[in-house]
Write a structure and sequence with these properties.
The complex is a heterotrimer of chains A (about 260), B (about 300) and C (about 325).
Chain A lengths: L1 E12 L2 E12 L3 E5 L6 H8 L7 E6 L2 E2 L5 H6 L2 E3 L12 H8 L8 H6 L2 H21 L14 H14 L4 E5 L7 H18 L2 E6 L2 H7 L2 E6 L2 E6 L1 H5 L2 H13 L1
Parallel strand pairs in A: 3-8, 3-9, 6-7, 7-8
Antiparallel strand pairs in A: 1-2, 1-4, 4-5, 9-10
Helix pairs in contact in A: 3-5, 3-6, 5-6
Chain B lengths: L2 H33 L6 H19 L5 H28 L7 H23 L4 E2 L9 E4 L2 E4 H23 L1 H11 L1 H6 L4 H27 L1 E2 L3 H16 L4 H21 L5 H15 L14
Antiparallel strand pairs in B: 1-4, 2-3
Helix pairs in contact in B: 1-5, 1-8, 1-9, 1-10, 2-3, 2-4, 2-8, 2-9, 3-8, 5-6, 5-8, 6-8, 9-10, 9-11, 10-11
Chain C lengths: L1 H26 L6 H26 L7 H19 L3 H23 L4 H21 L16 E2 L2 E2 L3 H23 L2 H11 L1 H6 L4 H27 L9 H14 L4 H18 L5 H19 L15
Antiparallel strand pairs in C: 1-2
Helix pairs in contact in C: 2-6, 2-9, 2-10, 2-11, 3-4, 3-5, 3-9, 4-9, 6-9, 7-9, 10-11
The chains are: A alpha/beta (about 260), B mainly alpha (about 300), C mainly alpha (about 325).
Amino acid sequence: MSLMRIENLTMRFSGIVAVENLSFDIEEGSITSLIGPNGAGKTSAFNCMTGFYKATSGEILFDGKSLIGRKPHRITHMGIIRTFQNVRLFKNLTVLENVMSGAHSVSKQGVFGALLRHPAQRREEREILENAERLLDYVGILDKKDETAKNLSYGDQRRTEWARALAAKPRLLLLDEPAAGLNREEKDRLVELIRRFRKDFGITVFLIEHDMELVMKVSEKVIVINFGTKIAEGTPAEVQSNPLVIEAYLGMEEEA
Amino acid sequence: MSTWELILQQGVNGLILGSFYALVALGYSMVYGIIKLLNFAHGDIYMTGAFVCLSVFGALSRFLSGWPAVACSIVAAMFLAAALGFLAQRFAYRPLLGAPRLSLLITAIGVSLVIYNTVMVITNSQPLFFSSGLDSSAGIKIGGLTVTYIQMVLLAVSALVMLGLSLFIGHTKTGRAMRAIALDQDTCRLMGINVNKVIGLTFMLGSALAAIAGGLACVYYGNVQYNMGYTIGIKAFTAAVIGGIGSIPGAMLGGLLLGLLEATGTQLLDSSWKDVFAFGILILMLIVRPNGLLGKTEIERM
Amino acid sequence: MIKAKEMMNSKWLGPGMLLGLLAAMLALPLFSNDYVLIVLWNGMFYALLALGLNIIVGYCGLCDLGYAAKFAIGAYTTGILMKSFGWNFWLTLPMVVLVSLLAAILVGAPTLKLRSDYLAIVTLGFAEIVRITARNLDITGSASGLNAIARPELFGLRLTKSIHWYYVFLVLVILFVFISHRVRSSRFGRALAYIREDEDAARAMGVNTTRYKLYAYMIGAVLGGVTGSFFAVRMTAISPQSFDFTQSANILLAVILGGMGKIPGVIAGAVFFAVFPEIFRDVPFIGDARMLFFGILLVVVMIVRPQGFWPERKRGALK
C-alpha cells in the first residue's frame, strides 16, 4: 500500500525549473530513496514534501490526504518528520531538550498547562521526558543528555537528531542526505541503523542522497532524477544497470 | 493661496523632506541588502554628518561663505561619516558576521548609543543653531507658489547624488560586486571577490549619503541636535520598506513617497500627528505588502 | 564523596541560596531607611520590566524595541480608568490584561510572521505611536500626563509608604519569577527556545512558530502592562516622557547584559541598571555619559560574550 504518493510534482523558481512532473510512490514499511547528481532537484522535491516550499503544481498525498498548501508544522503533526542535511540541532540547548522537541507534535499542553501545571500536564511532561531518555539510550548517548548540543561530536549530533526524529513517533521518516560527512565505517553503521529504525518502530523511511553505495545497500526502491525529471525507478539492481543512470552519474564524475 | 497652490506648495515641501528620507533610506537599504543588518546607527550617522557640516562651516567662516562653504562642509561631513561607518563596520559588525541576526541588531543599537551619547555629552544636550548666511526667502514665485533657491539646490543635489549612485551600482565593477554579494556571499568569496572590502565600502557609501542628507538638513532647517537622527532613522527605514528593502530605486521612491504622504497628511491632520501617520504607514505596509513596491518576492516559503 | 557534593550543588545550593536571599529581602526594611527602600524598589521595578521583556527576547529570541509601550498601555489604562471613570485600582487590572492582550495581537499578529528584524522596527514604530498619542489626547492628559492618581488600598491599608511599595513589588517580582520559571520549564517554553535557536528546525518539529511567537509576545505584553499599572499608582503621576525609546532601550539592555533567558541574570541586569546611575549620579562626566559606556559595553558583550554576563548553567536546568 502506498503511504505517500507524489503526482506530477513541479517546482519552479522564477523561471528555473527545479522539479518537473515528478511522480512516484513510497510504499508503507519500505525504505525508498531519491537519488540524483548535485543540483538534480532532490532538495527541492524534499522541501515540497515537507511543506518548506510550496509546489508550483502537482499533488502530494500522504495516507490519501493532500499535503499541498499545508505548513511544515501541520505536516509534522500528520506523522511525517524530517532531518536536515547538515544536522540542525538547537545548539545552545541540552541534548535532552533537543530530543524532547521531537515530542512537540505528539503532545498538547499549552500556555495554561505551563502556568497551572495540572496533573494532565505533569503526566505529559513526565512521558515526554521518559520517552526522550529511552530514545537517547536507544541511540546510545544517554550519558550525554545534559550536555549542550553544540559541544557534541558530529557523530553524536547525528544520533541526537535521530532520537529527536523518533521522539515524534512518525509514520514516515524523511532523511535529508544522512550520509553527508560520514566515513565508510559510519555509513555501514548507518545502513544498519536505518533498518533497525524500521524494524523497531515500524516506520517507513525515505531518503535523498547522492551517495550511490549507501543507497544501493539500504533501499528497496530507488528513484533517480536528473535535471528535475525522473530518469529511472526500480530496485537497486535495475537502476544500476539503467544506461540513463550510468550516463547521468558518469557525466557528473567527469565534471568533478 | 488657492487650494491648488497649497497642494503644490505642500508637494514641494514633501519632495524636500522626501529627498532627505531617500538619501538616508539608501544607506539602510544598501546595508540591509548586503548583510541583512538593520543598521540602527544609521540615523546617528546622519546626525553626525549634520554636526560635522555645522562645525566645518564655522571653522571655514573666515575664508569662505555662502554655497562654496556649504559644499566644502558637506564634503568634509561625507568623509568623516564614511570613516565612522567604516569603523563601525570593521570593529562592531564584522566580528559578528554569521552570528544570529539578533546579536547583530543589538550591536547596532550599541553603536547607535555610542554615537548618540558621545554627541550628547559634547554638545551638553543643547541644540546648536546654524546660519548659512544664504537668503532663505529668495526664490522663484509662480503665482502664489514659492520655490526658494535653497530648495532648488537641495532637490538638484539629491537628484544628482541618486543618479550618480544608480550609475555606480549599475555600471561599475564594485557596484556589480555589491549586488552579487547581496545574492550569495559564499559564492562571491569563491569567485575571488574581496567580500569584506566591498561590505566596508557599502557602509562608507551609505554613511556618506546620510551625511549629505544631514548637511542639507542643517542648511535647510538651521538647527542641529543630538537626537535629530532618531526619528529620521525610523522614517528612512519606513521609506526603505515602502520601496522594498534592498532595492536602490525602491529606497528613492519610498523616500519621496513618504515625504509627499507626510506633507499631505500634515495638511489633513494636525502636525502633532505626523509621526503617527508615518509609522502607521509603516505598519500598514508591512501587513499589506512586506516586500515593498519594488522589492523582489522571495521564493514562496510556507 | 563526589556524589554527595554534587547533590549539594545541584539540589540544595540553588533553593538554599534562593531562600536566604528571600529572607534577606523580607527582613531588609527593618534595617534600612527610606532612601535604600526607594532605590531597591526602583531595582525591582526594572526587574519586573526585564522579566516581562525576557519572555519575548530571552525566551523566544524576538527583538522588541518598544517595550516601553506595553508598560505605557498598562499605566495609562489604569490611570484613565481611575481618574476619568473612578474605578478602583484592583478592578483596573483585568482591563489592563485585556487591553495589553489586544494591543499585542494588533501589533504582533500581522508582523510576527515576517522577518525577525521587521518586528524590531514595528515595535519601535508602535511605541512611538503610543507615546505620541498619549501626548496628543486630552484623556491622557497630553504632554503633562496624568497626576494625582489615587493610592490603592490593600486589606484596608492605604499603600502610601515606601515600605508598602517595597513589599508589593517584592511580591510581584516573586510572581513574575514564578511565571517565568513555569513557562521556561514546560512544553510551551521549550517551543519558544526552539524558535529562538533555529526557527526552521522548530517548524520541522511541528512548532507553529507564528502562533507561539504571538503567545510569547502576548505574555510579555501582559507582564509589562501589569507592571505599568502598579507603576502608575506607585508614582501617582505618569507622563509621556516616562515611556520613550530610552526606557525601552534600558530594559532591553538589562535583559541582554544580564544574559538572555536566565532569570537571575536578567534580574541582576535590571538591578544593575537601576542602582548604577544612583551610585554615579554625582560623579561628573560619568553620570552624563553612562549610556555611552553602556553602548560600548553592549558591543563588546555581543562580540565577546553574546550570552551575557550570567554564567552558563552547568547542568540541565529542566527541573
